[in-house]
Design brief:
The protein contains 22 helices and 18 strands. It is α+β, with helices and mostly antiparallel strands and 569 residues long. It folds into 5 domains: 4-54, no CATH class; 75-170, Uridine Diphospho-n-acetylenolpyruvylglucosamine Reductase, domain 2 (2-Layer Sandwich); 178-302, 2-Layer Sandwich (Uridine Diphospho-n-acetylenolpyruvylglucosamine Reductase, domain 3), CATH 3.30.465; 309-420, Alpha-Beta Plaits (2-Layer Sandwich); 524-569.
Length: 569
């Protein structure tokens, strides 16, 4: 069937106000980025889909939302909490309570599309400053009211889902200011609600905004960059797509200010100290279970060095791609800021999606021994001082060529960069057409990578009509991550949750970590004891008892501190 006749009737209008879609649609309400015809053809063939599912959206969630339940918080508590922030910063309507009770996980999207949203909080508050936060936390602590923190809402691990009503704090409405810029120390201090674009814009325009000598970057660019908050990056131990050079979110933090049920504190802003275990490190990744982050000081980097170099190579197989990435990561000549390797399945999909499957190109690749269903794409970008970046690109290329790689210029890397923040918009289109797409990711040491990749992928693809695309995108001398993307026809949410739980179990059984950069939320909580063991969990529970003795902070399974255990096989 020709690609144009297969083109679905994409939704290209902003979601109706107060609709289910207004909550689950990714990104800007009036922005769209549809799957390319090549990708549609690939999915239609691989998933054995006829033409009908592509013709009109279904379960689009455009009807007016009906909340799961009315607020249950005692009216006197609601009134006193509202008085702290002012009535203009408090909401109890059904749409607001539901909106701020959902992130972007597949489970949440499926439930909203079924018009069966999860239970919401009882009251939504938008604190104006840390004094509001302190007053709200103190009141909720005294009255035993559950408290959940909402940043940008991009969590894919049920991280913002209230366990039992209570209060949700929305940090991005007001607490998004830059508090201090220190060019001498090369740091910036911000409130946690600032979103990625505003943060990066301030640093890029530092000469105009605060008379800085040069422009800067934060170096943190997750795929959710446009709609995630700095506080969320730290709470979930996130990684940006250029983390191999700049570091993960935890590496960027210099100091933090927290409001907890037992008090407020600020960690010291030294670059390094030898004063025992660092509370600064303990609070990173705490996902709102210990307290509320109200300010953070972060490292920043010069952005005007002019040394960017993009490169791409096609390797003959997955083993060669992994070996190339390992040698680059351990080469000690500097790291690319962005480095990605795609397995054969993801490489085939990329060739189709980006229209790179011209017959002449395919024949040339085969002539070079780079066969379809085996070859693997490596793309990279080096940043920094121009000689430094050029050396990284040159040395990386030498490694790839020695392993049978073919230079593809910098075009594939630039093509990927162009769409890296747009690709998530395709999720809603695919769901509209009856195709489920979701991801799980894990950290792996080099010597277990092949086992984790093969074992998890075999389990996913054993399910009928299911595609598994895999890449690695965050690199260290000691290991990397694996990012599994699985695509299958839509299924009931309960069936999906069982399938997802089984994948998580297989990741652990094959030697991967529970998470690399998405945090744990309430999704991964049931496996935390199995993953960390009883002694480490006892430490986390002791910290929880100290900071949050009444258990009000993000309860319901976050970090596995309460809630259910992992499902049995």
């Amino acid at each position: 069937m020709p690609a144009e006749s297969r083109r679905p009737q994409w939704i290209e209008q902003a979601p109706p106000r107060d609709s289910y879609r207004a909550i689950f649609k990714w990104g800007a309400p009036d922005r769209f980025y549809h799957p390319k015809p090549g990708l549609l053809g690939y999915l239609q063939e691989r998933l054995a889909l006829g033409p009908d599912p592509w013709r009109a959206p279904r379960q689009a969630g455009t009807t007016k939302l009906r909340p799961a339940a009315a607020p249950a918080l005692d009216e006197i508590h609601a009134a006193r909490l509202t008085a702290i922030v002012g009535p203009e910063n408090a909401q109890q309507d059904g749409f607001s309570r539901t909106r701020y009770a959902h992130g972007q996980s597949a489970e949440e999207v499926l439930r909203l599309r079924d018009e069966a949203p999860a239970a919401a909080s009882d009251l939504v508050l938008h604190p104006r400053h840390k004094e509001d936060v302190a007053a709200i936390v103190a009141y909720c602590h005294a009255q035993r009211i559950p408290l959940t923190v909402f940043g940008g809402g991009s969590s894919v691990t049920l991280g913002v889902k209230p366990a039992r009503g209570g209060v949700t704090l929305v940090m991005a409405t007001h607490m998004h200011r830059v508090l201090a810029f220190n060019e001498t120390n090369q740091t910036v201090t911000v409130q946690p609600g600032i979103l990625g674009p505003a943060y990066e814009d301030y640093l890029h325009h530092a000469p105009e905004r605060c008379a800085a000598r040069q422009r800067y970057t934060g170096g943190h660019f997750p795929q959710s960059f446009e709609f995630s908050s700095v506080g969320g990056w730290i709470a979930a131990l996130g990684s940006g797509q250029q983390s191999s050079y700049y570091g993960d979110a935890c590496d960027l933090v210099v100091s933090q200010e927290y409001v907890t049920p037992v008090g407020t504190f600020t960690t010291a802003d030294f670059a390094a100290t030898a004063t025992g275990p660092k509370v600064n490190d303990i609070m990173k990744g705490s996902e709102g279970a210990f307290g509320v982050l109200t300010a953070v000081t972060l490292k920043i980097f010069r952005a005007d060095l002019g040394g960017r170099k993009c490169f791409a190579y096609m390797l003959p197989n997955w083993l060669a791609a992994v070996e190339a990435a390992r040698r680059i990561s351990q080469g000690e000549f500097g790291m690319p800021s962005m480095l990605r390797i795609s397995d054969a399945e993801e490489t085939d999909a990329a060739v189709q999606a980006y229209g790179l499957n011209h017959p002449l190109a395919q024949r040339f690749l085969q002539w070079r021994g780079l066969n379809a269903h085996q070859r693997c794409l490596l793309i990279g970008q080096a940043d920094g001082e121009k000689h430094f970046a050029a050396n990284i690109a040159r040395r990386s290329g030498r490694i790839c060529r020695r392993l049978g790689g073919l230079w593809l210029s910098g075009y594939p890397a630039r093509k990927w960069a162009h769409g890296r923040f747009l690709d998530p918009y395709m999720r809603d289109d695919l769901y509209d057409m009856g195709v489920l797409i979701d991801t799980l990711e894990t950290a792996v040491p080099w010597d277990r990578l092949m086992q984790v990749h093969a074992g998890v992928r075999a389990f996913i693809t054993d399910r009928p009509r299911t595609i598994c695309l895999t890449h690695a995108s965050h690199f260290y001398p000691q290991g990397t991550n694996l990012y599994f993307i699985f695509i299958t026809p839509l299924m009931p949410v309960e069936a999906y949750c069982r399938f997802q739980a089984d994948i998580i179990t297989r990741i652990l059984e094959n030697g991967g970590s529970l998470s690399h950069h998405h945090g744990t939320g309430k999704l991964m909580g049931p496996w935390m004891e199995q993953h960390l063991g009883p002694e480490q969990m006892a430490v986390l529970r002791a910290l929880k008892r100290h900071f949050d003795p009444h258990g009000i902070m993000n309860p319901g399974g976050t970090l596995g501190l309460d809630g259910p255990a992992a499902p049995a096989d």
